[in-house]
Design brief:
The complex is a heterodimer of chains A (about 375) and B (about 650). With about 375 residues, chain A is an alpha+beta fold. Chain A folds into three domains: about 140 residues, no CATH class; about 80 residues, no CATH class; about 130 residues, no CATH class. Helix content of chain A is about 30%, strand content about 40%. In chain A, strands 3, 4, 5, 13, 14, 15, 16, 17, 18 and 19 form a ten-stranded antiparallel β-sheet that branches. Chain A has a four-stranded antiparallel β-sheet with strand order 6-7-11-12. Chain A has a three-stranded antiparallel β-sheet with strand order 8-10-9, with no helix packed on it. In chain A, α2 packs antiparallel against α3, α2 runs antiparallel to α4 and α5 runs antiparallel to α7. Chain A is globular. Chain B is mainly alpha-helical. Chain B has four domains: about 150 residues, no CATH class; about 140 residues, no CATH class; about 120 residues, no CATH class; about 160 residues, no CATH class. Chain B contains 25 helices and seven strands. In chain B, a hairpin with a 2-residue loop joins β1 and β2. Chains A and B meet through α2, α3, α5, β15 and β18 of A and α21, α22 and α23 of B.
Chain lengths: ~375, ~650
């Protein structure tokens, strides 16, 4: 039995079957993008163990085909196991080992990227600066103490805690929070509408508003708008229910003798430095609307290290700094005087570089040894 | 071997080499210096190009041909050259004698419903089943056409019917044509030189009157009217003009700041002289309209002389690209490739029965592949220098490069196995890819500027080139596999000679090429990922084109593993390699047809039909390749 399992996992046959599955999966997942959009197709086909079939009108989920994680995972097992079984030291098979090691590195690197990398966006207007980037998909409830002279103090409660509900407290917060309702995605209206319910909140913005809960969005070009009602409980015991929403401006309030802001906003990632936007440029080819280049001239200012320098971020030339990469991603379409930088934190970003070198070198090694052998055989009849 | 058979390969080589030399020699201009005019530089699509390129690319979009035939010959009489207007000659008419240009049947409409909707059934001229119409037939209908076009343009490309696409294409053609007509002189101008003089004379008083009007003082109505009558015409021309033909006055400040004739004339309102370029074009216009050749030639020469002061680079570019347009090297390479394929096919078919004749054919084919390679390479490099880019920048150039890569592989194969397979592959792949590229060129300018993301010679030179070589080698393996099936099933060729087992040799070639394909496609795909990581911060985004490349990698890896694991033998390998053609064709064209993702730069759906036909043919070949061996003519004897 063990023997049979070992043989199964080390067989070339399994590799061929897995490659065929991979082929079908990639093709299917590409076609599915037309209907599902890139994001959902990615999740359903590539970032999953199985592809499920949902029969119309039932809540069944029937797995019908292995997903990307299963095929990739099995391929990894197969690669490792086959090497344990067949590997013989020596130059002749060195190339094969390099190729496979490279592929392993690539698969692991991509898995790590899927798990560990974060993507966010930094928006800066010309003449101003930013020291944080914002997530496109995650939200947080921020309680900001704006009474300080220079810097604000922020207590940020991640969405996952809000969704759980219950009571939340923090030493920096002058009140306790109790989450009464939380919708991951919602629709808010200023008048009654079919399917909408009136919001039951005490604060003034929470009056005369109707809402309904929506499922999480799956397309790339729309965003979730979470909303909820949180109850603020002051130490004195006074409490009020407040409507918070990704669609509403931060709520100004006072608790004790301090001024606070309460906002449900995209999760922010603060940086230990500031980027000032000096100039955003959108160059076009003469006499056309074809973009020639987008670039942002920024000043990077980091007080604690005494750093202060100017950098240009443009297409194909990102800024790599402090473990993160800043890409020219978008711009303010109203007047072309603001930039949007994509900020990527991906600890595994170097793996493909090594993988590529390993595989290419391995293949060249292998083909060269074959070719030399082939030429030698032809020369001596 | 008989002397004639020895002589034959040299005869073919000499014949085609002479033809190539003949087309590459510079041609003399006629009495009217049309070529000199065609070389003049102008700015369009963000790049400096000769007027001839503007003429040619406009005509390709309007008529789907690079010139305008003036007499109709049945197309089977290919040896007779019909009289025709070359691209630049046509442009001269459009610019300077628009009333003549309006009578040329250039607008191609091939949707029968559109023809009957516009009631054009009894108008226009027909050639090879296609109908062409002069502008005079269409001008009463332009309003209707534009109305339908604006409706169609509200839909996304995938949702448009073929009728709507034809309407849009026609509207685009009319638009280009009308804009070309007012690119030099305002529409309806009979004497451009006079118009300029009148404008200049009316300008000072007209300006004074305008200022007076603005200040609310007494206005000289006559002067104002006189000026406005001309200015309105010029402004209309400024707004519609297509290419920018007038170079900037201060090239040191802004070398790309070309403007059109109308706009440049309007600038003089702010003071300053009329741009000399406008004066030269006006002289050309009058001289051409009055058939005064020597005056036209002297105006062109004068303008060139003037450009020679500050615009040497632009003049050179115009001249170089004009030469490239005229030589049509890719067309001539295509012709050689067809002959190569026929000769190599002949060599393979006579391989068993007439060995001497077969060898003579084979040699002829391999000499000609060498010639085709030289021509193809020269044209490819010339294009790269013109564009100052690596070889592949768009779908059009990828076709050319795939053909080139296949030609190289074919040459190498032919060096190793002197049977004719290498030449046959080079011939077929070269011919088909160049035909595809010719059709892709109908979309307009093939040397368009690169959008911001793609504007990086480093990644274009590495990722794009390597991945395209991956496509090319996968195709070559597939074509060799096709040869295996076709020759094996229908002819006794594969087992024709005892001393050389062709079926084994072919299988070895396919295997070797698949190895190369795996190397190129993997490296190219990963390099693409690294590029994406450099510009978007993600190595892999499951974009359709990325997935397409990944499919090729997976497929090649699958073939190799199936072979190593002994799951397939020769014939299995062959069938898998044929399916590689389907996957490569999908990745090359099919992914662009989905109309989504970052790479959907080449959306076209006319090609969809062809893609399906191709896939069908490949599947049919795989079915043939799976027939039991006793049904293969090449293996019947062996089995018996």
């Amino acid at each position: 039995m063990l023997e049979a399992t070992y043989k199964f996992f080390t067989s070339v046959r399994l590799a061929v079957v897995l490659l065929a599955c991979g082929l079908i999966l990639v093709f299917w997942g590409t076609i599915a993008q037309v209907k599902l959009g890139l994001y959902q197709a990615q999740n359903e086909f590539f970032r999953s163990l199985f592809i499920y079939w949902h029969p119309a009108g039932s809540s069944l989920r029937i797995p019908i085909f292995p997903g990307g994680y299963l095929v990739g995972g099995l391929l990894l097992v197969n690669l490792f196991a086959a090497h344990l079984r067949y590997y013989k030291p020596g130059l002749k098979r060195l190339g094969i080992a390099m190729i496979h090691l490279g592929v392993v590195l690539l698969l692991l690197g991509q898995f790590a990227t899927d798990m560990l990398s974060t993507e966010s966006y930094m928006r800066i207007r010309e003449g101003s600066y930013s020291n944080f980037s914002e997530s496109n998909s995650r939200w947080e409830l921020a309680v900001v103490d704006v009474s300080g002279a220079t810097d604000d103090k922020v207590v940020a409660i991640p969405e996952s805690l809000l969704a759980k509900g219950g009571e939340l407290a923090h030493p920096e917060m002058p009140f306790k929070l109790r989450v009464k309702t939380y919708f991951v995605n919602s629709d808010l209206r200023g008048q009654p509408f079919q399917g909408f319910e009136p919001v039951q909140a005490d604060n003034s913005t929470g009056q005369q508003i109707w809402w309904r809960s929506l499922p999480k969005t799956t397309t790339m070009d729309t965003r979730d708008v979470p909303s909820g009602i949180v109850e603020l409980i002051e130490p004195a015991g006074r409490s009020q229910a407040i409507l918070v929403s990704g669609n509403l401006a931060p709520l100004q309030m006072t608790a004790g003798d301090k001024a606070y802001q309460l906002a449900l906003r995209p999760t922010r990632y603060y940086k230990p430095f500031r980027l000032h936007l000096l100039d955003f440029r959108f160059d076009r080819y003469a006499g056309t609307d074809t973009p020639k280049n987008f670039s942002s001239r920024v000043r990077l200012e980091r007080a604690d290290k005494g750093e202060d320098r100017e950098v240009t971020i443009r297409m194909n030339e990102p800024l790599r700094y402090a473990g993160e990469t800043f890409f020219q991603a978008d711009w303010d379409k109203t007047d072309e005087k603001g930039t949007v930088l994509q900020v990527v934190d991906n600890p595994g970003w170097l793996t493909p570089y090594f993988a590529c070198v390993l595989v290419a070198a391995g293949m060249i090694w292998q083909f060269m040894t074959h070719l030399i052998g082939f030429a030698a055989k032809r020369k001596s009849p | 071997m008989k002397p004639i058979l020895k002589f034959l390969p040299w005869f073919f080589l000499a014949l085609f080499a002479t033809e190539i030399v003949a087309v590459m020699l510079p041609k003399k201009d006629g009495d009217l210096h049309v070529a000199e005019f065609g070389r003049l530089p102008a700015l369009l699509n963000g790049r400096i190009q000769p007027l001839d390129s503007i003429a040619r690319n406009s005509l390709l979009q309007i008529r789907s041909t690079g010139d305008v035939p003036l007499e109709l010959l049945p197309s089977w009489q290919f040896w007779r050259h019909p009289k025709k207007l070359k691209s630049t000659e046509w442009l001269l008419e459009v610019f300077f004698t628009p009333e003549v240009a309006d009578t040329r049947a250039i607008f191609l409409i091939h949707h029968p419903d559109l023809i009957s909707e516009l009631k054009l059934g009894d108008k226009g001229v027909e050639k090879s089943g296609l109908r062409y119409y002069p502008f005079n037939d269409l001008s009463p209908l332009t309003r209707e056409i534009m109305k339908q076009a604006s409706k169609a343009s509200e839909l996304k490309a995938e949702q448009q019917t073929s009728y709507q696409k034809q309407v849009l294409k026609l509207a685009n053609a009319i638009n280009i044509y009308q804009r070309l007509k007012s690119s030099i002189q305002p529409e309806g101008t009979e004497n451009f030189v006079q118009l300029l003089a009148d404008y200049q004379a009316a300008l000072p008083d007209g300006l004074k009157a305008m200022k007076a009007q603005q200040a609310g003082r007494e206005v000289d109505d006559a002067a104002l009217q006189k000026f406005m009558r001309i200015a309105v015409k010029i402004e209309a021309a400024a707004n519609t003009s297509y290419p920018r033909t007038v170079p900037p006055l201060d090239p040191a400040a802004d070398r790309e700041g070309w403007s059109n004739v109308g706009a440049s004339l309007l600038e003089t309102v702010r003071g300053g002289e009329i741009q000399p370029a406008v004066g030269f074009y006006a002289r050309m216009a009058n001289a051409y309209a009055h058939k005064n050749n020597s005056e036209f030639n002297s105006a062109v020469a004068g303008y060139k002389n003037w450009l020679g002061k500050d615009f040497v680079r632009e003049l050179k570019k115009g001249r170089a690209e004009y030469y490239f347009n005229q030589a049509k090297l890719f067309l001539h390479a295509t012709i050689i490739y067809i002959v190569v394929f026929v000769l190599a096919g002949g060599a393979l078919l006579t391989f068993g029965s007439w060995p001497n004749l077969s060898e003579s054919f084979r040699r002829s084919a391999s000499y000609l592949v060498g010639l085709a390679f030289v021509v193809h390479t020269f044209a490819l490099v010339y294009r790269m220098v013109l564009e100052n880019r690596p070889p592949v920048t768009n779908l059009y150039s990828s076709a050319i490069f795939i053909g080139w890569g296949a030609c190289v592989l074919g040459l190498v194969l032919e060096r190793i196995y002197r049977v004719g397979f290498g030449s046959a592959v080079a011939g077929l792949a070269g011919f088909v890819t160049l035909i595809i590229s010719h059709n892709l060129a109908l979309g307009g300018d093939t040397m368009e500027m690169m959008r911001a993301v793609l504007d990086t010679n480093f990644w274009l030179a590495t990722h794009v080139v390597v991945v395209t070589l991956g496509y090319a080698s996968t195709f070559v393996a597939g074509v060799l596999a096709m040869a295996y099936v076709i020759l094996g099933v229908f002819t006794p060729t594969l087992a024709a000679r005892k001393e050389l087992d062709l079926s084994k040799a072919l299988a070895k070639m396919v295997y070797a090429i698949v190895c190369f394909a795996a190397l190129f496609s993997f490296t190219g795909t990963v390099l693409g990922g690294i590029w994406a990581d450099q510009s978007w911060g993600r190595f892999w985004g499951w974009d359709p084109k990325e997935n397409g490349a990944l499919l090729i990698v997976i497929w090649n890896a699958l073939i190799l593993h199936a072979r190593w694991g002994g799951i397939v033998k020769d014939r299995g390998l062959i069938n898998l390699a044929i399916f590689g053609n389907v996957i490569t064709a999908w990745s090359w064209f099919g992914t662009n047809m989905l109309g989504i993702g970052l790479h959907s730069y080449g959306f076209m759906d006319a090609a969809f039909k062809w893609l399906m036909l191709f896939v069908g043919s490949q599947v049919a070949l795989i079915v043939l390749g799976s027939l039991p061996l006793k049904m293969w003519r090449s293996f019947q004897q062996k089995l018996a």
